[in-house]
Amino acid sequence: MIELQELEKVYKNGQVALRGISASFKGRVTSIIGRNGAGKTTLMRILSTQLIPTSGSATINGMDILHEQDRIRKNLVSIPQEGRPIGLLTPFEHLKIYLAARGMSFQGATEASQYALKKLELWEFRNSPTDTLSGGMKRKLFVAMAIASGAETVFLDEPTTGLDPVSRLEVWSSIKELSSEVLLTTHYMEEAMALSDDIVFIDNGMIIKKGTINELLMDFDGKIRVESTQPVSGWTRIGNTYISYVDTDSASAYVRKGYSVKQVTLEDLFVRYGVQIES
Length: 279
Ligand SMILES: Nc1ncnc2c1ncn2[C@@H]1O[C@H](COP(=O)(O)OP(=O)(O)O)[C@@H](O)[C@H]1O
Ligand SMILES: [Mg+2]
Hints:
4-stranded antiparallel β-sheet; 14 strands; binds adenosine-5'-diphosphate; binds magnesium ion
């Protein structure tokens, strides 16, 4: 469980990245979703003790990020955004060196590496230089590092950004193999839906909305999405489409006027809470 109390981060140049956020994340997998610059990476770096907050505090399973950094680091694996393995090393070497650096014995590291490589179907590539692996395989190698470490908590910062759809699915299935508590950031709604129990929308350094997928949809006032290709004042514009949300009762009136209507989906939460849709 991760608890945040009034967590605030102002960078040296005056940029405010987190505006005093308080929340607790209890799900096995929690997705933090928000557009670029929302504050996702800042939050992950603070929670993984790589960055000190300007004010406020947080705990991970009761351990304080400011006063129990060593304990947190022992129990946590944080995979950075844009993380790249070292190209000359093979996946097997990577894992063993990483685990040894975390304090595992040679024997333990070898066994845990074998287990994780097999689990994520990286075994046949274990002795190839990571340079020769696809982008998806490289990301999977990081997930393998997390699995092999046995860490209680795993952070993944945008694990599939920039991957093709097939690689993305592969990385998703590798993330599903993690038995730790997982906090991941993404700007893909489908990713949050596919992987997480709880979703936290963040924008401009604030938590805009938080809940399970069902709770978020239940809360949404206006169960029907009405679309127009012509500008309508007061409606939200997405590309060339104008969108409004209405009650089920009034939907038929819009159909008669020739608008197209749809049941709301999680994608609509994106629109409502101001998060960008990938185009
Ligand atoms: N080292 C830094 N110095 C100054 N501003 C930063 C730094 N890192 C991030 N920021 C700013 O803080 C805000 C949040 O950034 P970040 O946490 O990286 O967001 P996200 O990961 O959601 O894209 C942005 O406005 C970003 O430009
Ligand atoms: Mg980021």
